[in-house]
Amino acid sequence: MSLLTFAKIAWAVGVVSWYVLRIPFERKAKRQRVADARHRNLREMILLSISTLGLGIIPAIYAATGFPRFASYPPTVLQVVAGVVVFAGSLLLFWRTHRQLGKYWSVTLEIKDKHELITSGVYQKVRHPMYSAFFLWGLAQALLLPNFIAGPAGLIGFGILFFFRVGREEQMMREAFGAEYDAYARRTRRVIPGIY
What NCBIfam families does the annotation carry (predicted)? Predict the structure, then answer.
């Protein structure tokens, strides 16, 4: 098996693992009553589609067909090993975030009935560890898929979702939790502990 084939398989295993990890949490979250879903709109669906394009569709086309070939380059062993390690870290953080959020998790911006603000565990240092996990996934994709379009597509696609969504999400949390959220925001960073 070539290094490129291994890298593509590793990326695909990571994506499938992400989906499998999410299934039980998605089922649990669907059973919860939603108190505030005003952000479930066309803008949100467009942002989710852009993220899916970058983290799923474009890299899947490349992994399956090699298209676009002109943007490809040979991978290195170090690059692929780093990609596998980063993807594993992303999946671990993703699982821990889902586990901690439990019934309060949702794909779109929602406040559940009797929603509590989670500030411990992985939420102790960053307010959006799930976004941190997605950025790590994007970084792993850039390392595992040696193509100047398919590789960084995840960071670009998810980055667009993040920067157009995070302010609205934080405003929604502020409205729901008031001073408690403001105090939490002052002592934490968004996605990188101690930095941003």
Answer: isopcys_mtase
